[in-house]
Design brief:
It is elongated and about 35 Å long. The chain has helices at 4-12, 36-50, and strands at residues 24-26, 55-57. The protein has two helices and two strands, in the order αβαβ.
């Protein structure tokens, strides 16, 4: 997830597709509980901003308080 996806985006030449089309991001796991949630949410938001996403699919699990 941390290496292959970014490499494939660049290899496919689609890093600027956000300028012309919507970009959707889907999380690869459910949200964790406790302290892990802060780093998980921060990472997801950082990547969403990095790739200029239009929407984020958080799966079917609720976001903990």
């Amino acid at each position: 997830m941390l290496d292959i996806y970014p490499q494939q985006v660049v290899r496919a030449g689609i890093q600027d597709v956000w300028q012309h089309r919507p970009v959707s991001l889907e999380v690869c796991a459910r949200f964790l509980r406790g302290k892990e949630i802060i780093s998980t949410v921060n990472y997801i938001l950082e990547q969403a901003l990095r790739w200029h996403v239009t929407s984020v699919n958080l799966k079917s699990s609720p976001i903990p308080e």
